């Protein structure tokens, strides 16, 4: 636990390395399986081009459109006391014409962009914490951010493997229409609570987008991969709820009203 | 576990809030069940008039039986998966209900007791959703527990002496539920069933995340931090990551679809 202005993890490098090693060992059984699944997914997509993919894309776009989504950002600025009720919604930009990502691959590209968005958010938060911009940062929050970020990187890597195997460019940035609003919100945070609220929205959005993908994409590999990631994002959300002083498992069923629409993808 | 750090009024308020939030999720799941019911009606009509059924009628009884088997094969797999899921939920409800009555839970940490109450209600809702889908598909509802894990519970019961023992057993059940439904998403034949399994698996994973954190805090003699709101600054560093050990949710321990099927 750190109480100083300049935040440092309250674990030694050795302890952190040990924790990372333990996590790596825990992942060893699941990650190869997931990458094999992603490879199957790529082959499956390569085998079927055309109508089924178009139908899948159409269904996803129609469904997400009905959900009317955008990222609702809590007012995170200093002095704000509006809490979660004061939200602004980013407008979905039209999907760029001539996108290399079509059908299920558009959903994969969206998933990768969302993962990169989470990585960027945690990176910015950790940077701000290290610079002392967030005040005292609890050690558990620092560990959470680093571990969640590493897992999002694993997810992004798996999705990018699918894209590149299909001959499509990897998604390395955050090509989402809502990203400027996220960056703006991150730039104005002044404490850990604000960061946690923002992270909670990103995690909920990711989990719900994966659920939406599970019943809207057509490829078995894509369905299985999304199904294996959604629970992990939901677990991140549960821990964040706990840290924020909220009940960690508020819903009986995961919803999809916060799922991201592929139309927010800007590539 | 004796320290009561929770503001129970706050927990009640949070529970009410979560119920409001949850109404959307319940609606979505009801939508999925509604879609599934409609699709089942359409499938049933198609089955009666399908070319296979007509051909079977032309070639005789033997052909008809064969066509019936073929038509039922996919549906029966879905129904078995739903029955197994309901059996896991039934067992979870039973275990949490039993746990709630244990003296060291009743007089122990109020947040743990509140978690058990809320989680029991959530598993009940899941069981009802799975059984509603079974009914929609024309199958027999599952009211009993998963036989494999009922045996595991029976074996564990005599060893349960403290909250940590309850937490350990609950982690096992939540994990098998989450793994099973995660796998079921890729196994069932219908998009609305994928939606149903996919909307429940993350909730079981969240239960597990909470329980893993509680387990770590109990092991670290920090039971006073099991509270809502907690004291984030006092949480040990590992509490931030112990709840989600894997990047991808495993399915290696998922129950086979037939495990809790109604015989």
Structure report:
The complex is a heterodimer of chains A (267) and B (263). Chain A is mostly helical and 267 residues long. Helices cover 61% and strands 2% of the residues of chain A. In chain A, strands 1-2 form a two-stranded antiparallel sheet. The model of chain A is unreliable at 1-24, 50-72 and 74-95 (pLDDT under 50). Chain B is an all-alpha fold. Helices cover 70% and strands 0% of the residues of chain B. Chain B contains eight helices and no strands. Chain B has helices at residues 8-49, 51-59, 61-100, 103-106, 110-136, 147-156, 163-185, 191-219. The chains are: A mainly alpha (267), B mainly alpha (263).
Which structural traits does this protein have?
heterodimer; A: 267 residues; mainly alpha; two-stranded antiparallel sheet; 2 strands; globular; disordered N terminus; B: 263 residues; 0% strand
- Number of β-strand runs of chain B: 0
Q: Helix and strand string of chain A, N-terminal first?
A: HHHEEHHHHH
Give the overall form of chain A: globular
**Class per helix and strand makeup of chain A:** mainly alpha
From N to C, what is the helix and strand string of chain B?
A: HHHHHHHH
- Termini separation of chain B comes to 42 Å
Q: What is the terminal-to-terminal distance of chain A? A: 42 Å
Oligomeric state, counting identical vs distinct chains: heterodimer
- Helical content of chain B (DSSP H or I, runs of 4+): 55-70%
The gyration radius over C-alpha positions of chain A equals 18 Å
Q: Give me the number of helical elements of chain B.
A: 8
Q: Helix segment count of chain A?
A: 8
Helix content of chain A: 55-70%
Please provide a brief summary of the model:
The complex is a heterodimer of chains A (267) and B (263). By secondary structure, chain A is mainly alpha-helical.
């Amino acid at each position: 636990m750190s109480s100083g202005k300049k935040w440092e993890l309250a674990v030694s490098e050795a302890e952190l390395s040990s924790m990372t090693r333990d996590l790596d060992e825990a992942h060893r059984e699941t990650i190869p399986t997931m990458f094999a699944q992603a490879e199957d997914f790529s082959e499956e997509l390569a085998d079927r081009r055309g109508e089924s993919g178009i139908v899948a894309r159409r269904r996803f776009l129609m469904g997400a459109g009905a959900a009317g989504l955008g990222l609702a950002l809590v007012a995170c600025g200093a002095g704000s006391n509006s809490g979660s009720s004061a939200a602004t919604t980013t407008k979905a930009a039209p999907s760029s014409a001539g996108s290399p990502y079509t059908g299920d691959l558009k959903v994969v590209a969206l998933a990768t962009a969302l993962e990169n968005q989470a990585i960027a958010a945690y990176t910015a938060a950790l940077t701000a914490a290290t610079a002392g911009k967030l005040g005292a940062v609890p050690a558990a929050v620092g560990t959470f951010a680093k571990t969640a970020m590493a897992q999002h990187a694993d997810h992004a890597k798996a999705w990018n493997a699918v894209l590149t195997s299909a001959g499509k460019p990897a998604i390395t940035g955050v090509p989402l229409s809502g990203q400027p609003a996220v960056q703006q919100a991150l730039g104005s945070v002044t404490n850990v609570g604000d960061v946690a609220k923002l992270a909670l929205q990103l995690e909920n959005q990711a989990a719900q987008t994966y659920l939406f993908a599970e019943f809207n994409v057509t490829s078995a590999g894509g369905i299985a991969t999304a199904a294996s990631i959604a629970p992990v994002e939901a677990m991140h959300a549960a821990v964040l709820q706990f840290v924020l002083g909220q009940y960690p498992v508020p819903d009986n069923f995961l919803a999809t009203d916060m799922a991201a629409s592929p139309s927010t993808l800007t590539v | 576990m004796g320290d009561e750090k929770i503001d129970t009024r706050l927990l009640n308020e949070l529970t009410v809030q979560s119920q409001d939030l949850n109404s959307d999720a319940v609606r979505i799941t009801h939508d999925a069940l509604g879609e599934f019911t409609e699709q089942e009606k359409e499938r049933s009509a198609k089955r009666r008039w399908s070319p296979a059924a007509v051909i079977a009628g032309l070639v005789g009884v033997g052909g008809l039986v064969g066509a019936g088997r073929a038509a039922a094969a996919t549906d029966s797999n879905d129904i078995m998966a739903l029955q197994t899921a309901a059996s896991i939920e039934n067992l979870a409800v039973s275990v949490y209900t039993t746990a709630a009555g244990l003296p060291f839970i009743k007089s122990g940490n109020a947040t743990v007791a509140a978690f058990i109450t809320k989680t029991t209600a959530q598993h009940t809702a899941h069981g009802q959703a799975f059984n509603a889908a079974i009914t929609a598909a024309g199958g027999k509802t599952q009211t009993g527990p998963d036989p494999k894990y009922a045996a595991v519970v029976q074996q564990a019961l005599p060893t349960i002496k403290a909250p940590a023992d309850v937490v350990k057993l609950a982690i096992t059940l939540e994990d098998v539920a989450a793994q099973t439904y995660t796998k079921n998403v890729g196994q069932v034949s219908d998009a609305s069933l994928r939606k149903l399994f996919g909307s429940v698996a993350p909730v079981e994973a969240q239960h597990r995340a909470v329980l893993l954190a509680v387990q770590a805090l109990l092991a670290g003699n920090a039971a006073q931090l099991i509270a809502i709101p907690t004291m984030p600054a006092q949480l040990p560093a590992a509490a931030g990551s112990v709840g989600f050990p894997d990047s991808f949710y495993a399915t290696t321990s998922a129950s086979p679809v037939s495990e809790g099927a109604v015989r």
